[in-house]
Amino acid sequence: MLTNTEHIRYSRHLLLKGFGEAAQLKLKASKVLVIGAGGLGSPLLMYLAAAGIGTICVMDDDIVQESNLQRQVIFNTDDIDSSKATTAASKLIALNPFIDIHSYPQKLTSENALETFEKFDVIADGSDNFPTRYLVNDAAVLSNKPVVYGSVFRFEGQVSVFNYIDEEGNTGPNYRDLFPVPPPPESVPDCSVAGVLGVLPGIIGSMQALEVIKVITGVGDVLSGKLFHFDGLSMQSHTFTLKRRSDNPLNGEHTVISALIDYESFCNPGAPVKEITPEEFKVMKNKSEKFELIDVREPAEYEQMNIGGRSIPLGQVMDHASLFDKNVKIIFHCKSGSRSAKAIRQLQDKYHFTNLYNLKGGLDSSPPAKEGKAS
Predict the structure, then answer these.
(1) What is the pLDDT of residue 375?
(2) Of 32, 113, 334, 344, which residue is the catalytic one?
(3) I need a labelling partner for 223 at 20 to 30 A (CA). Which of 255, 290, 292, 350 fits?
(4) Of 45, 54, 47, 46, nearest to 23 (Cα)?
């Protein structure tokens, strides 16, 4: 039952015809896992907490950076360098102390996804990369959980609900029905390269919160079997119909995938990227081994903090290929290791380099101080 205080807090919900106390009690009894506390996760988390979702878990292994604050409105300047998951959780507790908030300051992986998903009724995907989206989708299908999906790119965004079971027991399409295979890694730059209008994740994340509420309460028509696309520049939207594919490897006519796979390799096919751990990198520097260090982050990121490498943003790496010595070990890095891995794949595929190494985990796993000198 709702307490007297909850009746006051959720009074505008209770006044809604077709919603009322019955729907509010469903929200109170529900458990939602939100993957990512970034641009999409910020409004998504805040509106779910305000709505009275009984249990919310925030999963994100990243820390708050100043460049996040243009769109990740759950954070403020004082939160820079703090854990996104734990900081977001503390903000949600302050917003609504009548619900349970948990933080998982860790990365979603093939090893922990199924066990984690089993604890929740709905998964809300606020991730920003293809390996995580495929992982979320596959884990949700294997654990029979609905996924509320959202994504943004520059001035556009889209929302859908995957793996939703309707009242008649029919299961809707999932992410692999929309994108059977991931796009080439170099074809879709992330927001650190392409940019994103700050207000756009607020719009799309709020729509995701709406779909989560509809999935839980049964109120309204869920975006299952549909993809909603929004163009912020033209203020036009379109809703596309999605259907299940017979060749879906998860739940098509011939099931191929029955367990979680290596999603980094799946989304980044081709020659493998060699890695060097931060510990190995430190030993190399201490031994004064000859190497070249390339930082593929954007200039503003480099100016804010760097470890002494040469700054060549990801979008310019291919233009500088002739400058890379094939006889010297070249170590690429970025913040997390994803952009630098993409740079290496591009160089390997086109110019057949064999001496490129990715700093595993990027700066997130390395000492955050200016140091070292590549030779």
Answers:
(1) 30
(2) 334
(3) 255
(4) 54
C-alpha separations of 13 from 3, 50, 115, 305, 356 in Å = 14, 11, 33, 47, 57
Write out pLDDT tens, residues 111-145. 999 999 999 999 999 998 899 999 999 999 999 99
Same domain, 125 and 244: yes
Hey, is 330 helix, strand or coil? Answer: strand
Crossing angle (nearest 10°) for helices 41-51 and 84-95 = 30
The CATH code of the domain that includes 79 is: 3.40.50.720
Q: Judge whether 191 counts as a catalytic residue.
A: yes
Tens digit of pLDDT for each residue in 91-112?
999 999 999 999 999 999 999 9
Tokens of 267: 């989304």
Question: Among 138, 91, 84, which Cα is nearest to 107's?
Answer: 84
Contact by Cβ (8 Å): 311, 295: yes
Decide: helix, strand or coil at residue 158. strand
Catalytic annotation, pick one of 56, 148, 159, 191: 191
Q: Please state the pTM of the whole predicted model.
A: 0.80
Rounded to 5 degrees, what are φ and ψ at 326? Answer: -75, -5
User: Following DSSP, what letter does each residue of 230-296 receive, concatenated?
Assistant: EETTTTEEEEEE----TT-TTTSSS----S---HHHHHS-SSPPEEE-HHHHHHHHHTT--EEEEE-
Burial class (CB in 10 A: 0-12, 13-18, 19+), 41: buried
Residue-averaged pLDDT of the chain: 91
CB-count exposure of residue 199 (10 Å: 0-12, 13-18, 19+): middle
Q: Which residues contact 165 (CB under 8 A, 6 or more apart)?
A: 144, 146, 171, 172
* Domain around 253: 4-267
Percent of the chain whose pLDDT exceeds 70: 94
**One domain for residues 49 and 197:** yes
Amino acid at site 140: A
